[in-house]
Design a protein that fits this description.
With 161 residues, this protein is mainly β. Helix content is 6%, strand content 41%. Strand 6 and strand 7 form a beta hairpin. It is globular and about 45 Å long. Mean pLDDT is 93; it is low at 1-6. GO terms for molecular function: kinase activity.
Length: 161
């Protein structure tokens, strides 16, 4: 009835590491590139530190330390997946610094990812940021491919809630 009072809220998404920003359809894994888990983007990191892409709350840290999920205040569910096929490494190249229920911002370091160790195992280090509940996204902008610094805003998303 009072829909005119509702305003779309923008959520800022940031680079999670220094590196190269790529659209999700260029991620080297079909589950992500075909958007089976949702839309988003990837960062091919050049540094070991991984930061939160958004302000929100940590929902879960996978036991293998390769992924973290979080929610934003306006309900977006975000998956931060560190590397491709890294679940098989049983947490070896990762150290996680956050826990479930913790509030985070783009300045919060989520984890470190040992890029040299990933290279030794011939494992792709691309970090994928996927929005897993796209029904809340009014319009998904395309990221501009190129170099980024950790915490740099890469897109702002209109949320319909």
């Amino acid at each position: 009835m009072f829909n005119f009072l509702k305003k779309n809220k923008k959520t800022s998404f940031h680079a999670v590491a220094d590196g190269n920003l790529i659209p999700i359809n260029k991620v080297e894994d079909n589950v992500f590139s075909e958007k089976m888990l949702g839309d988003g983007y990837g960062v091919q990191p050049t540094s070991n530190d991984v930061y939160s892409p958004v302000a929100g709350t940590i929902v879960s840290v996978f036991p293998t330390k390769h992924a973290v999920t979080m929610t934003t205040d306006n309900g977006l569910e975000i998956l931060v997946h560190m590397g491709i096929d890294t679940v098989e490494l049983n947490g070896a190249p990762f150290e996680v610094f956050v826990k479930e229920g913790q509030k985070v911002t783009p300045e919060t370091k989520l984890a470190t990812m040992d890029l040299a160790e990933l290279e030794k195992t011939n494992t792709t280090s691309t970090i994928v940021i996927a929005i897993t509940n796209m029904d809340l996204v009014k319009d998904m902008p395309t990221v501009t491919e190129g170099p980024v610094k950790a915490n740099q805003e890469v897109i702002a998303i209109d949320v319909t809630k």
